[in-house]
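User: Structure tokens for both sequences below?

Assistant:
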Amino acid sequence: MRKTEFANEEYYHIYNRGVDKREVFLDRENYERFLLSMNLLNDERDGLMLKWRDIQRAEPRAKLLDIQELSSRENPSVEIIAYCLNPNHYHFILKQSRDSGIKNFMHKLSTSYTNYFNKKNKRAGSLFQGPFKSAHIDSNEYLLYLSAYVNKNNFIHGYNKNDNWPYSSLPDYLGERNDKLVNKDIILGQFKNVGEYKEFLENNALYMREKKELKKYLIEE
């Protein structure tokens, strides 16, 4: 039984990695497919992925944001506050919007992407390491801290040395993109401007990375 009980209007850190620590995102197409699923599966309506597939077949240059029927969510399961997709794992900050929202959203997301990945790579079986992991974010300080951890997670794990990782919500928070996938107001609204939040990000992410690096050299007694 899952230890975390999800409540509406509460925030949660959601994360998981590939089974046997394997990579679950092998190329740009994989990342973009997962992001598409995050968008279209966060809706009480079913079949949006199939509708988008049919639209793209008819008009390959179509963009999701231009399709009003698909880009405007009806009764979403969750609010996505922040996210980061790394080669072998992902992190989300989610706010539950309706009963069982997180559980339903994560089930649809994992099932959809696993089916896609297995078909594309001619494999079978589980892709992720068991059920997704979760932790209740029980204070505003923790929420802010985790926003830095998630937005800069690619940097913290040493995959990227700057802020140009496109498969996270970081570009949205820095004002470089607005794909409407995340609700960044709850975090940015607590800072004077984007520059102040960027300084908060950099200071905390650098500390987190140094702490992670230090663990490699610790000797257990």
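Moving on to the next sequence.
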Amino acid sequence: MRISRQEAFDNHSRLMERDLIWRRFGYDADRNLKFVLSRTLPLPGRILEIGTGKGRFLTALLSHVPRVTTIDIDPAEQRCARLNVAFEKLPGRARFMIADAASLPWPEHSFDSVVSVNALHHMKNIPQVVGEVLRVAKPAGKIVLADFNTRGFAIMDRMHRKEGRVHECIPYRFKDLMERFAAHGWTAVLRSDDCQAVLIAVKASAGGGGKKRKVAPVLKGHSIRWNRLHR
């Protein structure tokens, strides 16, 4: 896909305008993405991103890793992401694919790392998506699932109502995801900041020799309050 400098600039301007609107409602995109990225890195090996969206997290990630395969079901969203990546002129490279997260087109254990940011609540079959994530992740790999927390969802709801729209949100609970990972032998921790929650999972026995891989504990003082959006 050929991208002109003007297209990339216009797309960037639209994203910045949207970020300003978010900030007025109390969501600082830059601050929250930095928090998610700080809890995500390092990401080893071959990386899969589920839910490209407009490429906000992808562009942040490509400043730190050489290559990312990213999927979305919406070509229009991925075009926006392509323009975003082109504007930023990042050192890393992205491979864009249209694919359904509930039926990933790769064999088992294809990726060292799987990450998804602010996309899970849009997916209609979350249990199947998580099953696919577990299937394609390598046993010694790393999985990061980030989404809005209670405050973040409340802000998105208010903003969308103000615009006369409804913020799409499929109900689920991080607690259930953590139990699912544990049932498959993964150790998962949950961290939360201002508007974001981040689940980090590694295989409980990763590292070989029967030694458990160390995982940082959940941050105290940043618990997540479950509301109707997570039930």
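User: Anything stand out in the second?

Assistant: The chain has seven helices and seven strands.
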